[in-house]
Amino acid sequence: MAIVSKKFNGEKHQNFQKRIISREQTWVNWVNDKPHEYGYIDPCDYSNFVFEKGKPIHINFNRCYIDGGFSIEKIAKANGYEHADEFVIESISIIDSIVKGKLDFQYAVFGDGEVNFSNSRIEEVDFKYTDFGAGDIIFFQSELEKCRFKYCDVVGNTDLRFKNIKQLIFEDCFIDKAINMKSSEKYKVLIGNSLFVRTTINASLLVDDSFVRTIIKQEQKLEDKVEALRILKVNANKLGLYDQEDIVYRALRRVERPTKNHLLRGLDYLFDLIGNYGTSPLRILVTILLVVFIFGLIFTYSPMFMIRSVSIDNKLVVTTINNLFEGLYLSGITFLTIGYGDITPVGWFSIIAVLVEGFLGVFLMSYFTVSVVRKTLR
Q1: Is residue 254 domain-shared with residue 275, that is, in the same domain?
Q2: Chain centre distance of CA 115
Q3: Residues 58 and 155 in one domain
Q4: Judging by DSSP bridges, how do beta strands 57-62 and 38-41 pair with one another?
């Protein structure tokens, strides 16, 4: 394995150190201490990864350019092991480095030290059947094309505040500690396609609303998107992030909207249009006011709308409504199903109009009550 430092102008310097120290532990350090340079590693010869058996193993890369990536399985074979799960890597750090290729941690076993990839640019990291210890997994401000966790139990805190990642996959995983993917004022997190398949999250998942919207918009199988949205909904409820939960809930209902039954699809769309599936009381209130106003206009200006009212000399007369205030009054008491009886509709058109508004009043007031109670109780 060639171990040299590489400037981007091609000038090379021999400034790397490979050290095996301590009787108790094995340390393999590739450290570049020169600023504005990256140490070049061509990982073709795995003999430089030979460890002393029976000792905890620590691997550190600092400001390195790793050309081609590496495989833990091949490192295991270079050390005389049949498989990667026959030895423990206590910690690994690839910090402020560039990796052209794939870092393959299939069947790797980590101890309780950190698995740290901070501030690095990496093409792909693959954790498959990887046994993580209690140490933190850190990708803080790293840039990746793809990162996959498959058949993994993640029992340490996980910092996935990527600077940028195109594809993040959790498949058949159990997550027992917090995952942080939330931006801050200083550090922005940009995550492309994300996939949660058959994954159980037993802790908090800190994400931005923008991440939720990315999940909603991305193209993937219907069942995969539904599962991901359900995970995010339960997580948001657990953390008390109710606005975020509402965003996920609306997206979940839209994804699951009936496609074959046109009547059910229409009703579902109506519930969404009026009140965002009960998550927006203000929207329902605006709809209520709009309905009352529209029927007030109909009652006032439609020549077909006739009423029976009491005249000044206490005689019943059939007439039309004379002013908008009276029309809005009739519309309001009809919508709220009060019905004082001082104004009575006459004729088929008038009767149908007040029956329709009365029905809308019962429906919308019930919808509004449920929405307000839901918000208040949470």
Answers
A1: no
A2: 24
A3: yes
A4: unpaired
- Are 174 and 88 in a shared domain? yes
pLDDT, one tens digit per residue, over 125-177 is: 999 999 998 899 999 999 999 999 999 998 888 999 998 888 888 888 888 88
∠ at Cα 321 (317, 326), nearest 5°?
A: 115
Q: What are phi and psi of 218, to 5 degrees?
A: -70, 150
Q: Say how far apart CA 284 and CA 222 lie, in whole Å.
A: 29
Q: What is the pLDDT of residues 166-187, one digit of tens each?
A: 888 888 888 888 888 888 777 7
| Distance in angstroms (rounded) separating the CA atoms of residues 88 and 171 | 23
Task: Please give the residue range of the domain that contains residue 310.
Answer: 268-377
- CA-only gyration radius of the chain, Å: 33
Q: What is the CATH number of the domain that holds 290?
A: 1.10.287.70
DSSP characters for 30-73? EE--STT-EEEE-TT-GGGG---TTS-EEEEEESEEEEEEEEHH
- Sorted by sequence, the CB contacts under 8 Å of residue 278 that are 6+ apart come out as 271, 367, 370, 371, 374
Residue 72: closest CA among 102, 101, 106: 106
Number of domains in the chain: 2
In this structure, the answer to whether residues 93 and 234 fall within a common structural domain is yes
Q: Answer yes or no: do 104 and 240 share one domain.
A: yes
Percent above pLDDT 90 for the chain: 25
Among 260, 288, 314, the domain boundary falls at 260
For 32, what's the count of Cα atoms within 13 Å in the CB-facing half-sphere? 27
